[in-house]
Every structure is written in C-alpha cells, then in structure tokens.
Task: structure prediction
Amino acid sequence: MLEQIFAFPPNRDTLGATSYLIVENQNNILVDCPAWDEINEAFLRSVGGVQWLFITHRGAIGKVKEIQQATGCAIAIQEQEAYLLPGLNVTPFGENFTLSDRTQAIWTPGHSPGSSCLYYANSGGVLFTGRHLLPNQAGIPTPLRTAKTFHWPRQIQNVQLLIDRFSPETLHYICPAANTGLLRGKRAIAQAYEQLAKLDLATCLHAQPGLSS
Result:
C-alpha cells in the first residue's frame, strides 16, 4: 500500500481487524496484533523485526504475549487499558506519546476508555485510527456507534480534536482497523482530512447503535 506501510490480512483473534506495520529501519512499529503464525513471524523477521507494538484499543490485543516473546518488542498502550496486559513489558501513556521522531500516539477515548490513534508524519501524514474512525458504506471515515461503544459523546469530541489538530497538508491518509472491505481493494482512505472536515458531527452524535462489533 503506502510506502513503508504494510497491511496484514484480517485477524480472527481481533474480530477480523486489520493491523499494520510501519517500517522505519531500526524502529519498526506494529500497529495492533496480526494473526500470529509462521508466515507473519517470518515476514517481520525479514524486514528487521519489531521494536514497538502499538495497541489502538482493547479489542486489538490478540496474541500480544506471543508477539512480545517472539520479537522482544516494547508495547505501547493507553494507561486506562494497560491493566489488560499483566506480566508483560508495557509502556502506558496518557494523552500523547512519541514512539519515534515521525510517530506519535494520540489518546482518543470513546470507542473504548483507552482508544488511541497513531500518527505517522511520512507520506503526507497517515493516521491509524483503530476503531475510532472506520469507513462507512461510501468509504468515508466516520465514527460508528455500536452496542459496545464506551462513551459516544466523548468519541465525537475526539473526532473534532483530530480535525482541529490536523490540516489538509498534514493528514493525507487514514488506515482503519476494520471495515477495510468497504475500501474496495484499498487499504487506506485518501484525502482523509478533507473527508473528516465534511462530517456533520452534530448528526453523528444522535446516531443510534449499529450491529457491527
């Protein structure tokens, strides 16, 4: 897909979610857990291993223990969900956390208490949104309310936070953790900022929960 970014096939352990790898020479960052098998383990070794595993939300944990044991990576997760990883080498963070000179975590609670996005400054700006923002039927990045949503008004507020934080020059792409089949073969949403800025968040706020997980 984008230069230096690889997408893994959907993972059954995380309800069919998509995880990603940012290849940064000696600081490769795995975003959420891919299916843990010999193929994916060999691929990660071939590109220099994994230095960081960033978890966007509690539903993306998967086989995190096995991944850390095999790769020796550090794990970054928002502090409100770090308790879900007892006995592991975990780096909890609050509102923001810098993983590299081009990569920063942003706490965006709502979908879950520790839901967070990861911003990568290359390729015009790429935002890995977990389930905070997902493509709708038209492929537009949207907050989607489900029966499991932790705090819907906070999720909407944090969509506005992202709109205020970025610009058309700093946010070109969004890589969501789910609903990627709605992107019609693509793994990223292009013109991401422009599409976010057009969202009617007041209407979103009154949306009823859907059936997706």
In short: The two ends are 26 Å apart (CA to CA). The first strand starts at residue 5 and ends at 7. The chain has a mean pLDDT of 93. The chain has five helices and 14 strands.
